[in-house]
Design brief:
binds L-tryptophanamide; binds adenosine-5'-triphosphate; about 325 residues
């Protein structure tokens, strides 16, 4: 609880440009949550360091992510949008919590297994302890709810386990958070391989729709989307490509599957793919315009970052002091 309301916390890694998966699975669903909850969103730049980054490009991506949050409709005066690396409490709490996390638990994390097979030349300790840092992000703000895509469910479970373990030893220190996974859009798949999730680190440009892709590229990528050899637009287990396109279309237009099936009855895949492409391009167009003006407005972004960094640091310090005291670290002598 914060300011008398339930607290909601989430964030994204500041790596590359966001995809339609990030948008439909996460960002789009965050807008308006501030009406009900106290919302805090981080630019998760510390997490990005688990993969080698080019410094100048990395800085640009982090700022771009900040602007995309705002462009998507998160008002930085009503949502605390800040940089993870600007609040040192994340790293401090992460160390403490790593001493309350078992290697056996971390060994079970599927994201670690997946990322270490994709970056076999750089399986660093940060990649391994990534879930502890994520738990620290969430617990530092005493979050009640954490809206994420399906792929983060396991990280939420370990966060809850760590919080419960700590609370069992030291009393009620942490709020035990709940995952908040959307029904639609929780897992948008790659356009070139509908068995794989759409991911910003995919090397195949045709597999992902980036939020800043222009209209023509969006439509072209959807036209090339891998489907099956059938022609009927129908939601079925054996049609993962069509299912994915129907999910996307449904998220963007609000239509349910049977309405979509009816709309495209007798019309074939070509027309359907074009309609999905156009609907996505229409949905992203206002966001892209807003982004273009925001990214030029240095003074505004800087002032929002500064204000929210301070707010986040204040919230974080409260929890961190409590934790340090509970585990028996000696309090600082204040003048
Ligand atoms: P990468 O795949 O390169 O590791 P990512 O695209 O998963 O990165 P993250 O920063 O890890 O990006 O994820 C940000 C948010 O977007 C998370 O809440 C995650 O669950 C959600 N998300 C990511 N990909 C998808 C997807 N394909 N469908 C739905 N939600 C997604
Ligand atoms: N691991 C998350 C990003 C992330 C996050 C968090 C999400 C880091 N810390 C705290 C929610 C809450 C991901 O989406 N890959």
């Amino acid at each position: 609880m914060l300011n008398g309301r339930k607290t909601l916390y989430s964030g994204m890694q500041a790596t590359g440009t966001l995809t339609l998966g990030n948008y439909l699975g996460a960002l789009k669903n965050w807008v308006n949550l501030n009406e009900e909850y106290e919302c805090i969103y981080g630019v998760m730049d510390l997490h990005s360091l688990t993969v080698r980054q080019t410094p100048a490009e990395f800085r640009k991506n982090a700022r771009s992510l900040y602007a995309l949050y705002v462009a998507a409709g998160l008002d930085p005066e009503k949502n605390c949008i800040y940089y993870q690396s600007h609040v040192s409490g994340h790293a401090e709490l992460s160390w403490i919590l790593s001493c309350f996390t078992y290697m056996g638990e971390l060994n079970r994390m599927t994201q670690f297994k997946d990322k270490s097979s994709r970056h076999a030349d750089n399986i660093n300790a940060g990649l391994y302890t990534y879930p502890v840092l994520m738990a620290s992000d969430i617990l530092l703000y005493q979050a009640d709810l954490v809206p994420v895509g399906q792929d983060q469910k396991q990280h939420l479970e370990i966060t809850r386990d760590i919080a419960q373990r700590f609370n069992a030893l030291y009393g009620d220190v942490f709020t035990v958070p709940e995952a908040y996974i959307p029904k639609a859009g929780a897992k948008i798949m790659s356009l070139s391989d509908p068995q794989k999730k759409m991911s910003k680190s995919d090397e195949n440009a045709n597999a992902t729709i980036l939020l800043l892709d222009d209209r023509d590229s969006i439509i072209r990528k959807f036209k090339r989307a891998v489907t099956d050899s059938d022609t009927v637009v129908r939601y079925a287990e054996e049609k993962p490509g069509i299912r994915n396109l129907m999910d996307i279309y449904s998220c963007v237009t609000g239509k349910d599957y049977s309405a979509i099936e009816q709309e495209f009855e007798g019309r074939g895949y070509g027309e359907f793919k074009l309609a999905v492409g156009e609907a996505v391009a229409d949905e992203l167009s206002p966001l892209q315009k807003h982004y273009a003006s925001l990214i030029e407005d240095k003074a505004y972004l800087d002032s929002m970052i500064k204000m929210n960094d301070e707010k986040a640091a204040y919230y974080a310090a409260k929890t961190l002091r409590k934790v340090q005291k509970k585990v028996g670290l000696t309090e600082r002598i204040r003048a």
